């Protein structure tokens, strides 16, 4: 609109100047000066009207308030600069992300430390009755050795049953021996001898069952390790199948890493890599122990298990870090 108005005004001024009648007589000095001034004025007006739109300042008065609208090349530059700055920031963030993924030409991936073995201890034996805990020998985080007694139950009744079973077995054996002697004297039939032998077998099975129930009177450690969680207390009644302790095996820890499937061609079992643990800030050596047989179709990653080259006392299961896979 501004361009159209400026062009129309220029044309109007030029037409007015050109159509002004010239006198055949020699003009007076004052007249020539006025004509020249009019031409200069027209030229100045035309040049001022054809300036770029962003350099024009418009002032309007509405209800006594001044409203100034202006476009300046400096203002436009100031508006453009933040956008370029944001582009620079996003570009730098992208570079930082790329740096995190590729450290020294290697692939950096998140890793989680897990124990080599872990289990939840519970009172076994569905045929057993509830029992009271007489002694809890471990606490949260305590260490234990293979075969150490972790929990002891009150098993007075089970031991009494075991004594009864042994007595019955002894009596059945004596009866069977007597029947055999009587059979030699032809005073006992073969059926009586067979029944006596059956009583011996039954009593022997009862003794074995009582021995097994007595073994459940205490919980022993399956391997060297530490206690990760305690669910019970002293003098607490525990039912069969109720969880009591979470145990974690001592020794070198394992790592879980989700690796992009494009790295499968370079990763093999026993391949070496490094892992930097966040909690300690140190870098450790590890190797690939197992590779999953299936690739996740959504994330295009495959889960691998790594094994630390040795046991590090400062490392605990559940710590996380960054696994650096060499290219």
Structure report:
- With 327 residues, the protein is an alpha+beta fold.
- The chain has three domains: 2-57; 101-116 and 251-326, Efflux pump adaptor protein, beta barrel domain (Elongation Factor Tu (Ef-tu), domain 3, Beta Barrel), CATH 2.40.30.170; 122-247, OB fold (Dihydrolipoamide Acetyltransferase, E2P).
- It is 37% helix and 29% strand.
- It has five helices and 17 strands.
- A six-stranded antiparallel β-barrel has the order 4-13-16-15-14-17.
- Strand 3 and strand 4 (106-114) form a beta hairpin.
- Helix 1 runs antiparallel to helix 2 (29-49) and helix 4 packs antiparallel against helix 5 (190-215).
- It is elongated and about 165 Å long.
- The chain starts with a helix and ends with a strand.
- Residues 22-39 and 45-101 have low confidence and may be disordered.
Number of helices: 5
Give the strand tally. Answer: 17
User: What would CATH call the homologous superfamily of the largest domain?
Assistant: RNA polymerase II/Efflux pump adaptor protein, barrel-sandwich hybrid domain
CATH topology of the largest domain: OB fold (Dihydrolipoamide Acetyltransferase, E2P)
Percent in strands: 25-35%
pLDDT averaged residue by residue: 76
Which regions are unreliable across 5 or more consecutive residues at pLDDT < 50? 22-39, 45-101
Distance between the termini: 63 Å
- Estimate the global geometry from the Cα principal axes: elongated
**What is the H/E string?**
HHEEHEEEEEEHHEEEEEEEEE
Instruction: Report the sheet with the most strands, covering strand number, pairing sense and barrel closure.
Output: 6 strands, antiparallel, barrel
Structural class: alpha+beta
Percent helix = 25-40%
The radius of gyration over CA amounts to: 49 Å
Total separate domains: 3
Q: Under the CATH scheme, which architecture of the largest domain would be assigned?
A: Beta Barrel
